[in-house]
Design brief:
Blueprint: H1 3-16, H2 18-27, E1 31-33, E2 36-38, H3 55-80
Antiparallel strand pairs: 1-2
Helix pairs in contact: 1-2
Length: 81
């Protein structure tokens, strides 16, 4: 699927699902607790964006890719203190 087709599919999905529209910004923000960063739980199931994005891709993105960014920020904060 091309990036334009994916963007169109996601836009269409978000426009037709108000609950996803409100959950997406929260799901992609870093939650802080004091000075500690943690990976937020998704507000929706990994399969919620199918067929545009598979549940397995969402699981990998969230647990591996997004978590790596959060871990890097946490490590960077430790080094700067």
């Amino acid at each position: 699927m091309s990036s334009a087709a994916l963007t169109k599919a996601l836009t269409s999905l978000l426009n037709t699902s108000p609950s996803l529209t409100s959950a997406v910004p929260r799901a992609f923000s870093v939650v802080t607790s004091g000075s500690s960063f943690k990976l937020p739980d998704l507000q929706y199931d990994y399969a919620a964006l199918e067929p545009a994005i598979s549940g397995e891709i969402m699981r990998i993105h969230h647990t591996k890719h997004h978590n790596a960014y959060v871990s890097s920020v946490r490590n960077a904060m430790k080094c700067s203190i």
